[in-house]
TrEMBL record:
PANTHER family: ALPHA-GLUCOSIDASE, P-TYPE DOMAIN-CONTAINING PROTEIN
Residue stretches spanning the membrane: 953-972
GO biological process: carbohydrate metabolic process
Broad class of where this protein is predominantly found: membrane
GO molecular function terms attached to this record: alpha-1,4-glucosidase activity; carbohydrate binding
GN (gene name): SI
Family (UniProt): Belongs to the glycosyl hydrolase 31 family.
Record-linked Pfam families: Glyco_hydro_31_2nd, Glyco_hydro_31_3rd, Trefoil
Protein name: Sucrase-isomaltase, intestinal
Keyword terms: Disulfide bond, Glycoprotein, Glycosidase, Hydrolase, Membrane, Signal, Transmembrane, Transmembrane helix
Recorded GO CC terms: membrane
Keyword Protease assigned: no
Residues in the signal sequence: 1-20
Length: 973
């Protein structure tokens, strides 16, 4: 590790020295001076930059900044440095290619506990810059380590951020073009501390770790853009997260967040380095010292807010499609699923249920929706309805909005209003409300959820309250909230001649002077425009950037990326006020802090094996972003899925927190009962999931209460293991479970890497409790994918039923996986009513238990400590499985709270070191004292151990079959 770090330092010093001494800069360390298309040597040199026709790295910029480009220091105070940009820059100091640099700037640093904040903005009293109105909790965070800042005030200003404990440089902007700051072009470049970089989004990534061997520019502007997983596609999808985690060469980790809501982009390069570009706002950066990846996320969530807690039922299986023809059609899919014995908790209703796709209405083929929802409630199910922000201006909800003076995105002036569509409706004639086209038959207006007055949010809540009288929904799904607008600036949009949509004129962002065009067509348009071609604008697929929000205070140019966040906040409030229950909100467009209010699904994906891969990465990334309630459209949204793909996706999706099958109206039906093999695999996978829901729920509870991830990359737990740093196709539930999905067509086995510093036990029927090591594991379509429990953890379980309502009444279980190095294990368990609104964990009633287990040759002891007491009765704990127990228990000596326990139904298998404790009503957790102990004496160590090596599992399938027969009933014994 030390050698790696020393090499990195030497490489960095050499790079800086060489760049400073020579005209040319090595292809690995360049900052693009012409980040838009079609650079030439002439246009490059006109910017004062360096041209290289044939760089040694094919993706390296041909036109790049000289090393001496940047700001100079005017003055230095304790925590503030004033920077200036000379009107006549010195040789080698290129000019900003997209506008005059603002001068002077201030560089300020501040600490919020362990979190370091650096802000670069115009000097106080100078040009006022937009700052996103997001709820950042600038309070003290905790770390065992700290960060400090070093600045170079000679010649061109540069700064670095270093780790106190190791002196490792985490951030260093000493690159050519490292800092630029004009009105509509801000640039910051820095070296990474290592090549182990994760995050940035939302994009479709094929690997968990960024490929820094090449230059790649990732667009960052929220768009109605489905993921394209066929090869490298750098389009931005629905949300924006300028946040990354870097694991340093010694295994320490840190994180960096840039809070900016303007159109932006990130270029990563082989320095390893990155270039951040934004076309508005300021540089507001937060550095989190970790030093573990999980601690980085917790520190990040101290700032952006800890994630919302989903209702218990929202962790159940969900089923939906866009394209049901009627309520009867959707009911058929629900009943097929139930009849196949597949657990099902939450049917979702897409826009088909609406009257011509208008919010807060019910279509003619769905008139009995309210009654059907009541029937589902009686069966223990719950319902999620979709709503779009685009409000049909001919609808009653829009008329009520106007009566309540709700605000909408508007044109800044009346002379810009598109009167050819504005004057079609009496509700908009004479207004400046900007009208677009979405699903409804008429033009739509877009509520301004950033309204500084309460009118808009109050109207939004009122509409939900009114509709709830007809349909008693339990959760809300908000879509199209980038916001999307079809065919903007196009003469013949895609919906023309579509039999399900009138040929209405689309929104046109026509501009008449430079001050107007600078928002939709700024000097630098970012990759979010260039990737669509010469005719594109920032307003492509959305509303005009010169539109105003905040009742004229702000521009859409500044607030567009915040739209989904603001809607999520308003919608969560509506859900809670109307239903008086927690429920869940699922949003498509997200931004840092949105995890406080909503979960996320990965959007309109494709039915392909490539997409299955990128969803595995996406779920892990959104856990890093502070949004753990996340998943993909199982089987794929667009295109026809296949039987095998749908089967494997259900096996994977059973381990994603948000777990929903969903596809569109042009694809074949894909509810799991369409194929017997898919139904069988789905039933097996979700019965397993439902058994482990108490653990999944506890992980969510811990994340909401204390911060952290639910699904996490393997390197989060083993950051010093080099083999985990690019191990994206396996993932973990918390620290305890490892999941190894099948990602290839036709596969009957998977190759898994299991860190050797931990012990791993199989949880599949065929080899339950076996000690497993890295290698090839059997993974046929008629068995559960490999799921392993880590030695040293205790996991709560529950006997599963086909709804969470029924499951929550069943007996609890404990799974104890012994760490053989210490013969111990520990864990935790949270329990509450599953749907109560949590405003303050300090006053909210819930149960919290901590478990510890120890064993030696004389005695074994399980201690259950009640940390917090709830106010509802709990099922009893009737079953305990102990894996890897090396000591033979004396069953006659088992006591619980000093009382003998009948062990007539319990057993110990010495050959497998598996102890199964079975006793109806063994423990009443809700009635126990602060500490309760289950204790027994041991008769010594078992005479043998059995280790199953995964490579043997594939070779000896007949043996597995015999084992499966012997242990197939272990869940129900």
């Amino acid at each position: 590790m030390v050698g790696h770090q020393m090499n990195a330092v030497i490489l960095l010093i050499c790079a800086v020295y060489i760049a400073a001494q020579q005209t040319t800069i090595d292809s690995r360390y360049r900052v693009d001076c012409f980040p838009e298309p079609n650079s030439t040597s002439t246009s490059c040199e006109q910017r004062g930059c360096i041209w290289d026709q044939n760089p040694s790295i094919a993706t390296a910029p041909q036109c790049y900044f000289p090393h001496g480009t940047g700001y100079e220091v005017m003055s230095v105070n304790d925590d503030e440095i004033v920077l200036t940009k000379s009107v006549d820059p010195s040789p080698g100091n290129a000019v900003n290619p997209y506008g005059s640099d603002i001068s002077p700037l201030t560089f300020r640093k501040r600490y919020y506990g362990a979190t370091l904040n650096i802000r670069i903005e115009p000097l106080s009293g100078a040009l006022k810059r937009f700052e996103p109105d997001v709820e950042l909790e600038r309070v003290s965070s905790y770390s065992t380590d700290s960060l400090y800042v070093e600045t170079d005030t000679r010649d061109i200003f540069a700064f670095s951020v270093r780790r106190t404990s190791t002196q490792t440089t985490l951030f260093n902007n000493a690159l050519g073009g490292g800092l630029m700051f004009s009105d509509k072009y801000i640039q910051l470049a820095s070296y990474f501390a290592s090549e182990n970089v994760y995050g940035f989004g939302e994009n479709a990534h094929h690997a968990i770790k960024h490929d820094l061997s090449r230059y790649t520019t990732w667009a960052m502007l929220a768009r109605d853009e489905g993921p394209n997983s066929y090869g490298l596609d750098t389009k931005n999808l629905y949300g924006v997260f300028a946040f990354y985690i870097c694991v340093e060469y010694d295994g320490n980790a840190h994180g960096v967040l840039i809070v900016n809501s303007n159109p932006q982009e990130i270029t990563t390069g082989p320095g390893p380095h990155f270039i951040y570009r934004t076309i508005g706002g300021m540089l507001d950066m937060y550095f989190f010292p970790g030093p573990t990846p999980e601690e980085v996320v917790k520190q990040y969530e101290v700032l952006v807010g800890r994630p919302t807690m989903p209702a218990y039922w929202a962790l159940g299986y969900q089923l939906c499609r866009y394209g049901y023809k009627s309520l009867a059609d959707q009911e058929d899919a629900i009943r097929r699923t139930q009849q196949a014995g597949i657990p099902l908790d939450a049917p979702n209703f897409d826009i088909d249920y609406m009257n011509r796709y208008m919010d807060f209405t019910t279509g003619s083929n769905w008139q009995n929706l309210g009654q059907f929802v009541n029937q589902l409630h009686n069966e223990g199910l719950h319902v999620i309805l979709i709503f779009d922000p685009a409000i049909d201006v001919s609808s009653d909800p829009f008329r009520r909005a106007r009566q309540q003076d709700a605000a909408f995105i508007e044109w800044p002036r009346t002379d810009l209003v598109q009167t050819e569509i504005q004057n079609l409706y009496d509700t908009t004639m004479g207004t400046k409300i900007m009208l677009g086209v979405v699903w409804p038959d008429h033009h739509a207006a877009f509520p301004d959820f950033s309204d500084p007055q309460p009118n808009t949010v109050d109207w939004w809540i009122d509409e939900y309250r009114l509709y709830y009288k007809s349909v008693q929904f339990d959760g809300l799904w908000i879509d199209m909230n980038e916001p999307a607008s079809f065919g903007t600036n196009e003469q013949k949009p895609w919906y023309f001649d579509n039999p399900d949509h009138p040929n209405i004129v689309s929104l046109k962002c026509n501009v008449f002077n430079a001050s107007d065009s600078e928002y939709d067509y700024p000097p630098f348009k970012t990759q979010s425009v260039y990737i669509y071609g010469a005719e594109a604008a920032l307003s492509t697929k959305t509303v005009c950037m010169l539109g105003t929000t905040g009742r004229g205070k702000n521009r859409q140019y500044d607030t567009k990326n915040l739209y989904g966040l603001y809607e999520a906040k308003a919608t969560m409030r509506a859900l809670h006020e109307v239903t008086q229950k927690r429920g869940v909100v699922v949003s498509r467009s997200m931004f840092p802090t949105a995890g406080r209010y909503a979960g996320h699904w990965l959007g309109d994906n494709q039915a392909s094996w490539e997409t299955l891969v990128t969803t595995i990465v996406g779920v892990q990334e959104f856990n890093m972003f502070g949004i753990p309630y996340v998943g993909s459209d199982i089987c794929g949204y667009s295109g026809d899925t296949t039987e095998e793909l749908c089967l494997r996706w259900h096996q994977l999706g059973a381990f994603h927190p948000f777990s929903r099958n969903h596809n569109n109206n042009n694809a074949v039906p894909q509810d799991p009962a369409q194929w017997p093999s898919v139904a069988a695999a789905t039933r097996e996978a979700y019965l397993f999931r439902y058994r482990y829901l108490p653990y999944l729920y506890s992980l969510h509870f811990a994340a909401s209460k204390n911060g952290g991830t639910v699904v996490r990359p393997v390197f989060f737990e083993f950051p010093k293991d080099q083999k985990t740093l690019d191990l994206g196709m396996q993932f973990m539930w918390g620290s305890g479970l490892m999941i190894v999905p099948v990602i290839e067509k036709g596969a009957v086995s998977v190759s898994a890497y299991l860190p050797s510093t931990a012990t791993w036990y199989s949880l599949r029927d065929a080899d339950y409790g076996a000690n497993v090591r890295s290698g090839v594991m059997s993974a046929t379509t008629n068995e559960l994918i490999p799921v392993l429990v880590r030695g040293g953890v205790i996991i709560p379980r529950q006997v599963p039923s086909t709804t969470t309502t029924a499951s929550r009444k069943n007996p609890f279980e404990l799974l104890i996986a012994v760490d053989p190095t210490t013969n111990s294990a520990d864990g935790f368990f949270y329990w509450d009513d599953g749907d109560g609104i949590i405003t303050d964990f300090g006053t909210y009633p819930y149960y919290e238990f901590h478990f510890t287990f120890t064993s030696n040759t004389q005695t074994s002891k399980l201690t259950i400590t009640q940390i917090s007491k709830g106010n509802i009765p709990m099922p009893t704990l009737d079953s305990i499985d102990i894996l890897g127990l090396p000591h033979v228990p004396d069953l006659a000596t088992v006591t619980y709270m000093g009382q003998n326990v009948d062990m007539s139904d319990s057993s110990y298998d010495a050959s497998k070191q598996l102890f199964k404790i079975r006793r109806q009503g063994l423990m009443a957790l809700d009635k126990q004292p602060y500490n309760a102990e289950l204790v027994w004496s041991n008769e010594g160590e078992s005479s043998s151990t059995t280790t199953y090596r995964p490579s043997k599992l594939v070779t000896f399938i007949p043996i597995i079959v015999l084992i499966a027969v012997a242990y197939a009933t272990h869940y129900f014994v």
